[in-house]
Amino acid sequence: RVLANTQCCTHEISILLRQASRNWLGRRNVRAACIVKWMAPGGKLEAVPASVLFHDVVKLKGLSWDEQAFAEAASPDVPPAKPVSGSLPEKYGNFVSTALRVGKDAKGDNVAFRSRIIRLDPEGAVCVAFDADTMRMAAGWTQGGLRLEGLPFTGGHGAFPSHSGAKVFTNRAAPGWADNQGSIAETRMPEDGKYPPLGPLPKTQAHYKGLYVHGEKTVLRYAVGKDPVLELPAFENGIITRTIQGKFSAPAVVVLADEKGAPEIQVLGSQEKPATMDGRIVLKVPAGMAHFKVVYGSGSVPEALEDLTLLIKGGPARWTEEVTTVGEVAKDDGKSAYVLDRLTVPYQNPYGLKMRIGGFDFFSDPSKAAVCTWDGDVWVVSGIDEKLESLIWKRIAAGGHETLGLTIVDDVIYTVADDQITRYHDFNGDGEIDYYENFNNDWELTSGFHAFCFDLQTGPQGEFYFAFGSPVRGGGRSFQRMSRHHGSILRVSKDGSRLDRYATGLRAPNGIGVSPSGQLTSGDNEGTFVPRCPIHWIEPDEFLGVVDSAADYATMKTTPTVGQRRGSRKENLDPSEAPKPLAWLPKNVDNSNGGQVWVTSDRWGPYKGEMLHFSYGQSAIYVVLKEKKGALMQGGVVKIPVRPTSSAMRGKFNRKDGQLYIAGLKGWQSNAGREGGLDRVRYTGRPVSMPSSLKVRDGGLEIGFTQKLDQELAEDPESFNLSGSDLRWTQDYGTGEFQVGHRASAGPPKGRTKFPVKSARLLPDGKSVFVEVENLQPVHMMQIDLDLETEEGKEIVTKIWNTIHVAK
Known about the structure:
Layout: E1 2-8, E2 11-17, E3 37-39, E4 45-47, E5 54-55, H1 57-61, H2 67-72, E6 95-105, E7 108-119, E8 127-131, E9 136-141, E10 146-147, E11 162-163, E12 169-170, E13 206-214, E14 217-224, E15 227-236, E16 239-248, E17 252-258, E18 265-268, E19 275-277, E20 280-285, E21 288-296, E22 323-325, E23 338-342, E24 357-362, E25 368-373, E26 378-382, E27 391-397, E28 405-409, E29 412-416, E30 421-425, E31 435-440, E32 453-458, E33 464-468, E34 488-492, E35 499-504, E36 512-514, E37 520-523, E38 533-538, H3 563-566, E39 583-585, E40 593-598, E41 611-615, E42 620-629, E43 632-639, E44 650-653, E45 660-665, E46 676-683, E47 691-697, E48 700-705, H4 711-714, E49 720-725, E50 753-755, E51 757-762, E52 768-773, E53 779-789, E54 795-804
Antiparallel strand pairs: 1-2, 1-5, 3-4, 6-7, 7-8, 8-9, 9-12, 10-11, 13-14, 13-31, 14-15, 15-16, 16-21, 17-20, 18-21, 19-20, 22-27, 23-46, 24-25, 25-26, 26-27, 28-29, 29-30, 30-31, 32-33, 33-34, 34-35, 36-37, 37-38, 38-39, 40-41, 41-42, 42-43, 43-54, 44-45, 45-46, 47-48, 48-52, 49-50, 49-53, ...
């Protein structure tokens, strides 16, 4: 290395420059040089003159370098760097988490469902792919060839990232470390018998713990049995290396590469030599301290072994540029009870990142929040106050696998992505994440593009909940390869050690809710077995509608649509097995759901203790009017008249100001405006004039309101208009709408049914009306049009959309 110093103003900059006679592409006599540029305040980017650079003479004498190659180089000019096709873009940070198709092997597609694609050079052309399911280094390459396609990278349905270029080495989809008997045979048994197997290895064999970021270096942490291991992939002198360090309580075996197509492999720091086992190149690791380097090539690399424990205590900050935005506080219109303030998101940022917000939460200091994005980033925004005049955004983490849920516990950030719940650690207090801990990744993951992990909530005992969607096929009908956990509400213990299925039978539930008492709710997205978007009131082990993802699919009378689960059974439909959600919602109300939140604030109008439902598709917020009838919950929704910046997916109440904050993003099937948004729905203190309750009574409906009503209009039957339709629960995508009262018919007539209002009576509280309805009966989707006034003459012109399971 050649060390040079520059002195600019009062700042000293040290430049470490590696110079070699052969570059990594094999070209000889390449002049190694660099151009140092700077920008004076108010000026332009200019090269620093070579005359102000000087060598550290003392250190220079102690260095060995190829002086002849430097002299023979053809030109003193440094050619501009050429982008390598298929590189890992710098904006994603040190690594990207995603499913990755490595290629083909003897058994079929070699896919790493939980890969960490780790950048090893500045251009992103040199990478390795580590599989967090199997602890194998799935592949390494030096000449690009990475295709980041599909969601969230390029859009489209069905595709996912792959590597199609030349590879230095590969490892088939099988364990990367042997079990305690020394066997590298696959022990995971997929339900469908297909390759690759699904899910993590048994924890008694090996388990992924997380990764550390230290500058440009990425250190993996995992356990072999109970023994902790650190691993550093690197690119040294044009060769990919793996430095492994740990203390082993018993002999172990690490898999280095598939024998077919493998390069020469050297091992530095170990007396053991690579050997072959079952068509794979392996290395025995004796019991005791181990510290060795695997070299994938015949060239020379530094023999010194880096102490990896020095890289896991916190590295330098990488994203030092913060972005300051100015929020938009709604103007007082003199009449609205609820208004929308916009916390301006940094759509233009130094890192070229999209700001599609998938989750957020507040710290104990409620002026600060953390947000996660669909693209895998985590940001912290501070300065959240009444005026929103200075919102400071800092990127603190990157590389997540579609992070669509976030919660904060004791000021520690947790996110859920497709592959794991991550707990984030900043060891040195510089505001950036040093350790991405795998809090839990026990579910079986596939490459399904539509099988997102949505939302992350905590329960009253500190447990975690999230929704895992089913792997919807491109086009929306039926499903791709199913795992044991698809289409479920998953519960994780407070310490992260256990995962179980709380409820099953979901399709694409973009959000859940957990009440202060622990009641779970969710929505779902219209499609196979989901005739319209529901709101589910969930009990443990409940079936929620999608047979393919039901825990008891094999014993249900209705058959799944996916061949792997239907088997040889003849297609059958039993309507008695259909779910009965709290409400079915029309498409124009909610065509694609968000989550739910409970109103915990007494400074947000009259709805404390009630539940709100969000619509991603319609970018809307609804108050849920619920009623328990026997063992069933039923009810409906009424819209809060505000328009979010983007969609409405997640909601939290701020402990300081007591107001509702919402976030969302724009994907497909949404009328959202911006790609992402973070808003405050603020109660102005003015009277709220909206429905507050809905109850079915014998012969009619009792509708409660937040204000006393004008008696004349309240008792006018013309103030109420009721109609409804029924749905059909089938294997098809969605449903038609049918006249009410024909559920037993094989061919019910299409259309809507009118429910004539016979009379209306204002009840003694002055806020409730009993509406006498002719022939009231169960109905999947009812619409109640209201045209009323308060005692003060304020109009209440709105609609309630509701479901009735029990009509008396």
